[in-house]
Amino acid sequence: MKAIDLFCGAGGLSLGFQQAGYEIVAAFDNWRPALAVYQRNFTGHPAICYDLAAACEDVEIFTNYSADMVIGGPPCQDFSSAGKRDENQGRADLTRSFASIVTKLKPNWMVMENVERAESSKAFADAKALLKDAGYGLTEIVLDASLCGVPQLRKRLFLIAEQGGRDDALEFYLEKNLAKRPMTLRDYFGERLAIDHYYRHPRSYARRGVFSIDEPSPTIRGVNRPVPPSYQPHSGDTAPPGPELRPLTTKERSMIQTFPDSFIWSGTKADMEQLIGNAVPVKLAEYVARCIEEYVESKSVPEPIDIAWNYFQSSLALELAGELRQR
User: Fold this and answer.
1) 186: closest CA among 212, 210, 211, 214?
2) H or E stretch including 156?
3) Which tens digit of pLDDT belongs to each residue from 210-243?
4) pLDDT at 81
5) What is the DSSP string of 210-279?
6) Catalytic residues, which ones?
């Protein structure tokens, strides 16, 4: 399938779907540092600076690409536990804009990603209502990235829409392919990190800051700070603070988001950390893409009951034809 990526950021969704065999034909965002990184890593299609908030009124720019699918992750700061959790800040409107664009383009498929907290928001409910009114069947699911090939505890909400489909049609495939246990950093990197423990700055000192590579990483956020001299050990820390304890590097954090080692990052350190923290993990996107592919392929295979019914009808027709010949 051909897809366009809205709110593409650094390209986590694009790369995941591309690795699953989909063709990305265009990408859109209005944050230039994100587009600069995207354009350095994706050369086979355009990445366009465009205000998607205004696009819900005019979708002509997207129609040239004849896309079968629209994918994207509208900004989540108004829903995120790391943000203000206030829909009235304005960015929640972009969730509605995303759905509005889809209803006007009328692709066969849509995949929208957001933080788990968005599930209970009015903006998300409005987006679903728009899509239902436009004839889409919806599958809504929260996936833990650590069960989808990503060494990170990161729960994300996916809304998948199929034109003319039935609700919850993909739930079986999205659940049956999950791993039996979370992926740890050691599972993913082996000994490549050359550490057993690392520092991840907590949101408050009521939380721990030292983690082991024998567990999944906590959610990668858009901030990355060194160990402060004032850090006091926490009862949940997996090791005591010491001179050998360090935070993960920007590159390591991008690889925990399952971007390949060859992916090129550019811009200020703050921009790169924000891009990495905002990204959809590549392997999580690939997981969703492959589940959709499996579902589509299953629809092309007749169900056993259909095969039996067709055989019965053919046999009955042959029997009747034989009787007619005898007469």
Assistant:
1) 214
2) strand 155-163
3) 999 999 999 999 999 999 998 999 999 999 999 9
4) 47
5) EEETTSPBPPP-S---PPPTTPPP-TT-SS---TT--BPPHHHHHHHTT--TT----S-HHHHHHHHHHS
6) 76
Q: Which residues pair with 28 in a beta bridge?
A: 6, 48
Q: Which residues pair with 144 in a beta bridge?
A: 155
Residue 87, SS3? helix
Both tokens of residue 122? 């009015």
Rounded to whole angstroms, how far apart are CA atoms 130 and 99?
7
- Residue 145, token pair as written in the block: 């990235």
If phi > 0 it is left, if psi is from -120 to 50 it is alpha, else beta; for residue 182 that is: beta
CA distances from 200 to 183, 238, 274 (A): 18, 12, 15
- Burial of 170 per CB tally in 10 Å (0-12, 13-18, 19+): buried
Q: Residue 258 and residue 171: Cα distance in Å, rounded?
A: 24
* Sheet strand arrangement including 69-72: 47-49, 23-29, 2-6, 69-72, 109-115, 155-163, 136-144
Q: What is the mean pLDDT of the chain?
A: 90
Q: CA-to-CA distance for 5 and 241, rounded, in angstroms?
A: 42
Confidence of residue 250 (pLDDT cuts 50, 70, 90): very high
Place 56 in a pLDDT band, splitting at 50, 70 and 90. Answer: low
Structure tokens at 83: 């943000």
Q: Tell me how far apart the alpha carbons of residues 28 and 35 are, in angstroms, rounded to a whole number.
A: 8
Q: With pLDDT > 90 as the criterion, what percentage of the chain qualifies? A: 80
Cβ contact 140:105 at 8 Å: no
Q: Looking at 42-92, list the stretches that DSSP marks H as alpha helix, in order from N- to C-terminal side.
A: 60-63
